[in-house]
Amino acid sequence: MNDQVYGIVSFASANGFVYNKDLWAKAGVTEWPKTPEEFLAALKAVKDKTGATPLYTNYKDGWPLSNWTNGNGSVTCDTKAETAMTTGDPWAPGKDLNVIDSLLFNAVHQQLTEKDPTTTNWEDSKKFIATGKIGAMWLGSWAIPQMQAAATTAGQSADSIAFMPFPSQAGGSFCSVLNPDYQYAVNSHSQNKAAARAWLDWFVDKSGFSATNQGVSPVTSDPLPSALKPYSDAGVKLIELETDQRILVDNIDKESEVGIKSPDYRQKLIDVARGAAKGDLNSVLADLSARWKAGQQSAA
Q: Beta-strand (E) ranges in 126-218?
């Protein structure tokens, strides 16, 4: 209708750090860090007191790095964070992507991530975090049941796997952006609309798919999944970004060749942070800002 495509989302993932709660407690960290500086200090405590890899980037697989962009809006609790990218500089001081990428850069630069990021492995990372060899990974809440299953398989408690928001507060509250997973719809040209609708109703209302994946259900009366109860108890605000300018943002991204939804630019950021490429944090952020500005001009 009116050139719009409609669908019902299977679930929405909250964003945060999947972490081994028992390992962090062993390091003496029992409260969520409220600032990037506190988070880096917590990672250092994990390294110094447990010998574990504090933060795992999953650099080689690449795709987990793109999830860092899903933190956009969480830092400042700004539902207009994506829209602001059409006219502003996302890497200006204090802006969400500046804070997010600075945290990742500093964690790598301070040697609080894996020693050789070119050898990371997604499947292995599940076992590593489950057995306390890894402290944390930035992912969506959909990853929690996978890590909990790995803990159970390894003979560890699934309760050791927990979830914390990005270390930044706005107005005294943490925020976490919800990102929709796959969306479903009945084909308008289907010869079996009634059957398709019946399946869709079952899937959304009765299948339990969203709870199984620790996602927020599209049914507004459904409770939050168990893994997000700590979010609810701590008053973490679950927000949704305004997406009416997404096509323009995508066009700017294409023209700028930054690739905010691809892992390449964060792999480069990590390479600079670990000394495998020239530059420093300021030069990386300045380059991203300049390319984005050029993309805005080209897409206008």
A: 134-140, 161-164, 175-177, 179-180, 183-184
pTM of the model: 0.93
Q: Which two tokens stand for residue 209?
A: 């798919």
Are 290 and 124 in contact by the 8 Å Cβ rule? The answer is: no
Residue 122 · residue 64 · CB < 8 Å:
yes
Locate tokens 């492995």: which residue? Answer: 121
Distances in Å between the Cα of 160 and the Cα atoms of 51, 145, 209 are 18, 12, 23
Backbone angles phi, psi at 165, to 5 degrees: -75, 170
**CA distances to 2, 46, 220 from 6, in Å:** 11, 45, 18
List all residues 6 or more positions away from 50 whose beta carbon is below 8 Å from its beta carbon: 23, 26, 27, 132, 135
Mean pLDDT in each 10-residue stretch from start to end of the chain (300 residues)? 73 93 97 98 98 97 95 96 97 97 98 96 97 97 95 96 97 94 86 92 85 80 88 95 94 97 96 97 98 95
**What DSSP element (H or E) covers 283?**
helix 281-299
